Amino acid sequence: MTTFKQDGAARRGAGIPATGTAIRAAAGALALAMATAALWPAVGAAETPAQAASAASAAAARAPAVLTTPAILSAKSRAAVMLAAARAGERLVAVGERGIVLLSDDNGASWRQAGTPVQASLAAVQFVDAKTGWAAGHLGVVLRTDDGGQTWRKQLDGLQAADAMARAAATPQAQAEAAQLQADGPDKPFLDLYFADRDTGYILGAYNLLFRTTDGGKTWQPWNAHVNNPKNLHLYGMRAAGGALYLVGEQGSLFRSADNGASFEPLASPYKGSYFGLVAGRGGELVIYGLRGTAYWSGDQGRNWQKVETGLEQSITAGAALADGTLALLSQGGDVLLSRDQGRTFARLPDSPSLPAASLAQAADGALIVAGLRGIKRLAPTTK
Length: 384
Hints:
Elements: E1 2-6, H1 23-26, H2 49-62, H3 65-68, E2 82-88, E3 91-96, E4 101-104, E5 112-114, E6 122-127, E7 133-137, E8 142-145, E9 153-156, H4 158-168, H5 172-184, E10 190-195, E11 201-205, E12 210-213, E13 221-222, E14 235-241, E15 244-249, E16 254-257, E17 265-266, E18 275-280, E19 286-290, E20 295-298, E21 306-307, E22 316-321, E23 327-331, E24 336-339, E25 347-348, E26 357-362, E27 368-372, E28 375-383
Antiparallel strand pairs: 1-28, 2-3, 3-4, 4-5, 6-7, 7-8, 8-9, 10-11, 11-12, 12-13, 14-15, 15-16, 16-17, 18-19, 19-20, 20-21, 22-23, 23-24, 24-25, 26-27, 27-28
Helix pairs in contact: 4-5
Keywords: Photosynthesis, Photosystem II
Protein name: Photosynthesis system II assembly factor Ycf48/Hcf136-like domain-containing protein
InterPro entries: PSII_CF48-like_dom, Sialidase_sf, WD40/YVTN_repeat-like_dom_sf
């Protein structure tokens, strides 16, 4: 049986909070000011060259510096606040504050910084193969890479979204809302993303914010109207399991799509607090997790739920399915929980790191990579 042990001391950054009381806020919920249910037109849709040039010029004039200034390259970036991590083939890619992206080609033993075109914080990252991936985060930023994270290009930001809404406004109320959004600036954070393949993917966030692409991010269609979420509750996580798509969010919001994302209908939720994410087992089992150590398991596509005893009081911020079928959960205090029965029960890893944590990934050699407010921690695999 594979277990894990800490591999060296955690990298620490100056000025980092000593506790993880607001991990989820640090991971994306900074600037939740986009409260609108209006339908946005597709961003990136066909325009004449003159229209495109005019829009680009206007957006550049209003863009905050962090949207137009590349991330600063610094040796100190290895100790930055890192909010998400993912595998890209044999490589590890971590993203975090100020547009920082770190790469590791030795299973997390060492890291180097890659350049990005923005200084906006990045809260989510996913790869669909060794080369193709996306990162999303604050100010409505979406980045894409086609070389395993070495270089990135911006596909979307909050200014483009606000301008698209303004172009679509057809009533005085909609026009007023669009004008306010433009005046507020790009304050619409994306909190998570999910791609099924190189073409089809979703980005999601505050106030039911949801976009869909079917061309790898060249264009984005507003998708919030496809979610039966009349209160516009924040969306925190999306994953696929057993042929369906699932969304989770604040106040116990839980949705399922059985038609490839065409519609998302609410499921009866066993909990009224916020869910921060979900992880799927090999047989389509689901574990949803969130505030105050809460987790629930379902083996029937969310029709029924069983409470999972985690033994935690701190919120659970991340989950991952490991290569051997083990499911892992991560608390904001750095507790790692492992399940070898597809999520029905979990046990705490004795050598869990003690650091405010935001994300969990697995390296090619089986090691666990924990990213958080004090940098990145590697838990080396051992066999017992």
